[in-house]
Amino acid sequence: MAIWKITDEGPKELPQTELPREKVLEEDLEEWIEKEPIILGEPLLLIGRQVMIPEVKDRLDLLAVDPQGNAVVIELKRGKLNTPVDTQALRYASYISKWGFEDFENQARSYLGKAGDEDFNFNQIYETFCNEAGVEDPPDLNADQRIIIVGSEVKDKLGSVALWLSEHNIDIKVIEVDVFKDDQGILMQPQVVVPLPVGRFTGVGKPKSGPISKLWMTSGREWHLEKRCSPKTREMFLALDGIIADNFEVDGPRWNQKSYVAYRVNNYNWLAVETRPNQLVLLILVGAGKFSRSEVAASLGIEEFDEEGSIGDKLGLPSSVNIRKLTGQTDRIILRLKDDFDIQGNAFIEFLKKAYRAFPK
After folding, report:
1. Are 107 and 122 in contact (CB under 8 A)?
2. CA 148 to CA 75: how far, in whole Å?
3. How many whole angstroms separate alpha carbon 26 and alpha carbon 43?
4. Are 132 and 285 a contacting pair, CB within 8 Å?
5. Which are the contacts of 195, defined by CB distance < 8 A and separation ≥ 6?
6. Residue 253, preceding peptide bond in cis (omega within 30° of 0)
7. Are 262 and 351 in contact (CB under 8 A)?
8. Among 299, 283, 279, which Cα is nearest to 331's?
9. Strand partners, 262
C-alpha cells in the first residue's frame, strides 16, 4: 500500500524503495526494532540480541517475552524471505522451549549489562512490563513459544509454510516491511501478512456458537454481556461503550479475554473493564502522579477504597476508587462502580477525558 505525503500542492505518492538499495543492513533493522519493539505491532520485552544457541551453534537475532508469558523468537532478513528462515526459527523456538526461569533471568542480566549486580531482579522487570501492558497478574514465563519473522518480501514457499503452521496452532507471525523515501529520509511500513489479516466486520451477522467454557474466545460479546453481567451492569457497560466510541480514539472493545473487555491505545490496554453481575471494575492506565485517590473520589462522588479494610467492609462499600503505583512512570486507577452509579453523568465523562489525556504515550 502506498504512502501519501500531503503537500501544499496536494497529495504526493512517496516512491517505494528497497532496503538493500538504501544500504540498510540486517543489523540496522535489528537496531530499529531493538530501540522500538512496538514496530512489530505489540508490546514486547527484549532480553537478548544475537543470542547464542549452543545446541545449534548459531545465534538468533532477537529474543523477547510478551505479556502472556510467551518466549518470542524474532528473526530478521534484509532481503527476500525464503524457505530456510522458517526452519531456522523453528529450531530456535524448540530449544528455547526447554529454558527455565533462571535461563531467561541470566539472559536478561547479560543483555542489560547487569552481570554481578546482586540487586538485579528480572521477575520485577517482567511483572512491571506485564502490568504496563494491562496484565495485572503476570502469567508463568515460557508457557509457550512464538515466532516473528521480519523481512522485505515474503516468498510463496515461506508464506505457504508459515500459513500452514499458523493454521495448525503454531504461533507464527510474518511481517513484511515496505520502505519509502522522501527528501527527509527513509520511512518504514511494517505489515502483518501471516496470519492473514481479518476484517473488523467479518463476524457481523454470524451465528454464535461454541462451548461455554471458551465462549469468550468464540463469542466474547455474548460471554461478557449475557453470561457475566446482570441486566443492570450490562446496561452500564453498553452506556460506557457508547461514551468511549463517541469521545476517544481507541482499539476496542476487544472481547476475547475471560474476565475483562479491553480498549487499547498504542497496543497497550488503556482501559480494561472487568464485567461482573453487581459492578463494573475499570482498570485505567495513566501517568504516575496524575491523579490522587481523594480527588477522584470527590469528583465522582464515590468512596476511597481501603486496602487495609476487612473483606466485609470492602464488599459493603458503595462505588469506590483506588490508585496503585505500577512503575516510576505509570499508575493504575481502579474504579469499582456499583450498578447504581451514574455512568452517563457529566462528572464521569469529564474524568474519562482527563484519564485519556493522562495515558503515558
Report:
1. no
2. 6
3. 22
4. yes
5. 163, 166, 173
6. yes
7. no
8. 283
9. 254, 272
Give the pairing of strands 153-154 and 320-325.
Answer: unpaired
Supply the Cα-derived Rg of the chain in whole angstroms.
Answer: 23
Q: Are 340 and 266 in contact (CB under 8 A)?
A: no
50 with 184: CB under 8 angstroms?
Answer: no
* pLDDT tens for the chain, residues 1 to 361: 677 777 777 787 776 655 555 455 556 778 889 999 999 989 999 999 999 987 777 889 999 999 999 999 999 875 555 546 668 888 899 999 999 889 999 999 999 988 888 788 898 899 889 888 888 778 888 888 999 998 877 666 777 888 888 888 789 998 888 777 777 777 778 888 888 765 544 555 555 444 444 677 788 899 899 888 999 999 999 999 999 999 999 998 999 888 899 999 988 899 999 998 888 999 999 999 999 999 999 999 999 986 554 444 445 578 999 998 888 889 999 999 998 999 999 999 999 999 999 998 7
Q: How far is CA 127 from CA 77, 142, 189, 250, in A?
A: 31, 14, 31, 24
Q: Give CA–CA dist 76/83, Å, rounded.
A: 13
Question: What whole-number distance in Å separates Cα of residue 91 and Cα of residue 97?
Answer: 10
Dihedral pair phi/psi, residue 345, rounded to 5°: -70, 155
Buried residues in 311-334 as b, exposed as e (16+ CB within 10 A):
eeeeeebebbbbbeebeeebbbbb
Domains along the chain with CATH numbers: 9-194 (3.40.1350.10), 215-357 (3.90.1150)
Which of 296, 294, 265, 280 minimizes the C-alpha distance to 340?
280
